[in-house]
Amino acid sequence: MGKTGIKTTAVIANAFFYLHLSAFLVSFYLNHFDPFNSPIDITIRGKVSVIPEIHRPELIQGIENFNELSVLIEKSAFMRFDYTSYRDSITINNLGYFLIDNLVKLLWLFITFQTRNILRSLGKHKVFDPKNFERLRWISVIIFLIPIGQWLAYRIFVLIVRAETYIEGYRFDIYQGIDVRMFGIAFLILTIGEVFRQGIKLQEQADLTI
């Protein structure tokens, strides 16, 4: 990528960061407050898995190659709880879910911020800026933490759903487990950061030699 391409990418990344920030602020408000009601409701929303209490294969009709097939059916649900009373909305589970769920969203925003800073640095021809290594290391740490935080948020939301509602013949469970693929991505980015660090060392040695 040429100099013009890097500068253009940096400009796009800068615009994307502010777009991401705006989207976070708007979604934060709409996810937790209902401005269309008066007084404004406090809202908690999220996803859960809805699993039959008797979880057994069910027969379905095949179309071409198979006459009969059996599958284990699991369903997911989007749940929303509107509290008209501020006092009722303040529970340990609600506060825990509110904090962790929004912390995960902030971590994604922080990744966008650090990516923008790296690209802006490259746009200024600061390829071997030591700050870029630190930024990549922070990104790898955050990507490692995000799936753990997301799993905790899902786990707490299940407790909220179980305390607030019931569907006969079904049980509520966590929507999604820990996405271990994110750990691999974190390791890859950390490796790239180490390449940056070694490049900085080589550049410093070359400068001293000159």
Word description of this protein:
The chain has 210 residues and is α+β, with helices and mostly antiparallel strands. The protein is built from 5 helices and 6 strands, in the order αβββββαααβα. The chain has helices spanning 3-32, 86-89, 92-123, 130-164, 181-209, and strands spanning 33-34, 41-52, 58-61, 68-71, 75-83, 170-173. Strands 1, 2, 5 and 6 form a 4-stranded antiparallel β-sheet that branches. The chain has a two-stranded antiparallel sheet with strand order 3-4. Strand 3 (58-61) and strand 4 (68-71) form a beta hairpin. The radius of gyration is 24 Å and the shape is extended. The two termini are 28 Å apart.
Give the arrangement of secondary structure elements.
Elements: H1 3-32, E1 33-34, E2 41-52, E3 58-61, E4 68-71, E5 75-83, H2 86-89, H3 92-123, H4 130-164, E6 170-173, H5 181-209
Antiparallel strand pairs: 1-2, 2-5, 2-6, 3-4
Helix pairs in contact: 1-3, 3-4, 4-5
Largest sheet: 4 strands, antiparallel
Distance between the termini: 28 Å
Q: How much helical structure, as a percent, in the residues?
A: 55-70%
Query: Strand-and-helix sequence, N→C?
Result: HEEEEEHHHEH
Characteristics of this structure?
extended, 210 residues, two-stranded antiparallel sheet, alpha+beta, 62% helix
